[in-house]
């Protein structure tokens, strides 16, 4: 049976899809507790009753946003995996950093929501969650950092988490960091990717093939 999320993704110009897009942005900017359905309805330019008709309550809409982001992330990681397959480790990391940095800067609600979810003072513990452990294990396997290609060790997962958290931090903190380093957005994005590659590629490449 087709879900509301399926319908929204199938018809991106629909009211249902426009609500979902606005909800991603609003939840990403203000978090779950700082966002109201009225704020989202106002952003879309609809009556709040129309929002509830399409998505139900705030929690229902938030869960749809989480599912939507999880699906987008998984699809992006699969595309990255196809691109880096069979390349040397240094190239795999460089390509992954470039592609993920560009993608997440284009969708800042993703790192913002992940950081809100796991590092905020308040947390709605009910409902769906980001499937971060699965994503990290997928990246570990794609990078060839797991010993048998299946099991991701704690060290290899922490290594990937270090890179991902660096990307998240640079994106979520962009409005603070850009004036600090006197860079415009396009230059900042390029410099972030280059800095991450400068820091992370040498130690990974030097330890290629060593057990983790």
Give the topology.
Blueprint: H1 4-10, H2 15-34, H3 37-44, H4 48-55, H5 58-84, H6 89-106, H7 109-119, H8 132-143, H9 154-172, H10 174-181, H11 185-206
Helix pairs in contact: 1-2, 2-3, 2-5, 2-7, 3-4, 5-6, 5-8, 6-9, 6-11, 7-9, 8-9, 9-11
Briefly say what this structure is.
The chain is an all-alpha fold and 212 residues long.
CATH superfamily assignment?
Answer: Tetracycline Repressor, domain 2
CATH fold description? Tetracycline Repressor, domain 2
* Mean pLDDT reading: 88
Number of helices: 11
Biggest sheet architecture: none
Give a count of the beta strands, DSSP E runs of length 2 or more.
0
Helix content range: over 70%
The best one-word shape is globular
| Cα radius of gyration in angstroms | 19 Å
In what range is the share of β-strand residues? Answer: under 5%
Overall number of structural domains: 1
* SSE succession: HHHHHHHHHHH
Task: State the separation between the terminal residues, measured CA to CA.
Answer: 43 Å
Question: Can you name the CATH architecture?
Answer: Orthogonal Bundle
Which structural traits does this protein have?
single chain, mainly alpha, 11 helices, Tetracycline Repressor, domain 2, 212 residues, globular
Describe the protein.
75% of the residues lie in helices and 0% in strands. It is mostly helical and 212 residues long. The protein has a single domain, classed as Orthogonal Bundle (Tetracycline Repressor, domain 2), CATH 1.10.357. Helix 2 (15-34) packs across helix 5 (58-84), helix 5 packs parallel to helix 8 and helix 8 crosses helix 9. The mean pLDDT is 88.
């Amino acid at each position: 049976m087709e879900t509301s999320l399926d319908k929204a993704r199938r018809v991106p110009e629909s009211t249902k899809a426009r609500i979902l897009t606005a909800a991603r942005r609003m939840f990403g900017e203000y978090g779950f507790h700082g966002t109201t359905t009225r704020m989202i309805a106002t952003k879309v330019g609809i009556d709040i009753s129309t929002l509830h008709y399409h998505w139900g309550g705030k929690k229902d809409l938030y869960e749809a946003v989480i599912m939507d982001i999880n699906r987008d992330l998984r699809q992006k990681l699969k595309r990255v995996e196809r691109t880096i397959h069979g390349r040397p480790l240094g190239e795999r990391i460089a390509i992954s950093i470039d592609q993920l940095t560009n993608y997440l800067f284009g969708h800042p609600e993703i790192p913002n929501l992940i950081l809100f979810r796991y590092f905020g003072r308040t947390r709605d513990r009910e409902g769906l969650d980001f499937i971060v452990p699965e994503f990290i294990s997928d990246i570990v396997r794609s990078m060839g950092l797991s010993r048998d290609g299946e099991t991701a060790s704690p060290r290899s997962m922490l290594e990937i988490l270090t890179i991902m958290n660096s990307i998240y931090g640079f994106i979520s903190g962009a409005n603070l960091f850009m004036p600090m380093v006197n860079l415009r957005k396009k230059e900042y994005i390029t410099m972030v990717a280059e800095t991450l590659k400068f820091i992370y590629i040498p130690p990974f490449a030097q330890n290629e093939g060593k057990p983790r």
